[in-house]
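Lab notebook, bench 4. Still working through the backlog of constructs that have no structural model yet. Next entry is a single chain of 160 residues. Request: give me the structure tokens for it.
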Amino acid sequence: MEAGKLRVLAGRGVVAVGVTTLAALAAGCGHSSSSTTSLAPGQTPPPATPTMTPSAVPVLGKLTFGTFPSTSDGISALSLCEDWAELRAQYVARVGKGTPYELEQWFSSSAWQPAFNASGPLRTDPNYSELNTAFGLATTGESASIAEAKLLDKACAAAD
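Model written out:
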């Protein structure tokens, strides 16, 4: 790997992330909401760009994405929302018919793995507490419901 460059897998694509030194990589083993590009003090990172446009889903309507920063956690949050966008129609169909056990089996399937992988870093980032909570409730068999899906939609729209 070239010093100063790191490729991070982010949902559906590979995003090039600039890093000032390899020492910064070693020091940054934990997840944080710090910028993935070098910024001057007071500057904010540009917004992350969605890779897809969500479709409207019966019962839930149209999902919109808020403005996520192009930080490591911002990209993970956007990726989680994009993964959710792809699963919403199936979710509506299954949540009304499935038992909590059946839903847990589905949430454990490979269809959900990208979303769960993207949600991992968000568990400790207070900037995404709403998104983390909404995702957790929506993807737990006992609490999965249309109401929880709407909260997850709201958190994706708010970019929180």
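Notes after review: The longest helix spans residues 72-97. Confidence is low (pLDDT under 50) at residues 1-36. Flag for follow-up if needed.
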